[in-house]
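WARN retry 2 of 3 for item q-0093 after timeout on previous attempt; input resubmitted unchanged.
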Amino acid sequence: MMEITAEDIEKNIDFFFSEMGNPFASEPASEATLKKFRGKLPDRLLAFWRAHGFCGFKEGLFWITNPEDYEPALEAWFSDTPALQEDNYYVIARNAFGELYLWGTHTGARYELMSPSMGWLYNNQNMRDEHDIRNGKADWLLSVFLALCAPDQEDTDDQNGKPLFERAVRKLGSPAANEMFAFTPALALGGVKNLSSLSKVDIHIHLDLLSQMVERHMLDKRSLAKAAFGPKAEWPKGIE
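OK item q-0093 returned
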């Protein structure tokens, strides 16, 4: 097996910055917060916080979050799922459409709130992070997670397959650290996935309301394919 070096980790971090650009709207991480999450989250993430704070990228498309701010959302969406019984999870990042990325102390990036407007939670059951974290590779896994957060992955398409974020920014302005773009009404409640249905809302209030209004579905790769593309859809072979 290839040995992973500190240089490999930093190459992934550098790639993240090359894709996402410079951070903005940075809120410094306090020493108390750094101390609270030391040993619970990867050291490289805490080093990121120390250097850049909690911050946004690409006009608010992607955010590195303070997990303390998202504890209510984590509880609202995942409290009655197996996730919070399996591990201690924290929201470490999110995008402009309210997708939340969770990190488990022992299991890494297994769960996410994939689409709050649809009520979709995602469990990446095939991830092998737990084994790698036990073997001291949490910083590597964190760097891989960041490297995969490309702008086109964080955007969402309208019903015609056209990206929405830049058009939403032109219409509504960039979302701030406490804001997101939301479909109103929610897609699960009959809303339409187009620009005219988007509004800019307080992310904490909106996620709390959605957690009470939409039915939640815990999806894996196969059930996600069926939910997105129909009952006969299958996850592409060879993609893990």
